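Review form for a predicted model. The reviewer records the input and the model, then writes brief findings.
Reviewer: anonymous (R2)
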Amino acid sequence: MAVVALAVSGCGAPEPGAETLVVFAAASLRGSFTEIGERFEAANPGTDVEFSFAGSSDLVTQLQQGAAADVFTSADTRNMGKAADAGLLDGDPIDFATNTLTIVVTPGNPKQVTSFRDLTEPGLAVVVCAPQVPCGAATETVERAVGVELDPVSEESQVTDVLGKVSSGQADAGVVYVTDAAGAGDQVTSVAFPEAADAVNTYPIAVLKDSANPALARRFVDFVAGEPGQEILRDAGFGAA
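Model under review:
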């Protein structure tokens, strides 16, 4: 539980007597959900939203081990299904966004990567998400569609770590979501590939059965699925569910 507590970050300092809402969210939602949390707090005075961002599979494991949270969002339906099968959800999840993959390379694309198949070139240091993570599962789907098998130098537990390896120069290329690439700005160069259409991830959100404040949790879910949240997600590059 100490690890979970350290992973939680709020939108701001809690007000005295504020209602706290703990949201477990996929790492790829960090930028957009931080903004959504701030908007939600402004629309609901006296509310403090705290987030724990990590790979969806890690978040499910934490919840199964008893971590306390009110809302869970996954970067795929598979990990949300695991939470449902474990009896962790209060009601059916709501699909609220989609995301697709892109290749990111060091600025200027010095290795001249132009396709997914190019990621198999000898001497190219490629980083991907681990298979149990939604972006990793999607990457494997693309590998099958293209008919190649990547040989990554590392497999990361969350998509933001893949992005970090490329933006810091520790890897030549990585496979991330288009939203992560957009958020990185000129720290990386994006290389789109048509096979990404074969691996679109759907993002669901749900209230957790053990939520300390289910009414507030439901209000947050509705906020994300409604126009305020959808506007922020569209601006970040997410697609409609």
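Findings: Residues 3 and 62 are 9 Å apart (CA to CA).
Further findings: The chain is about 35% helix and 25% strand.
Recommendation: see findings above.
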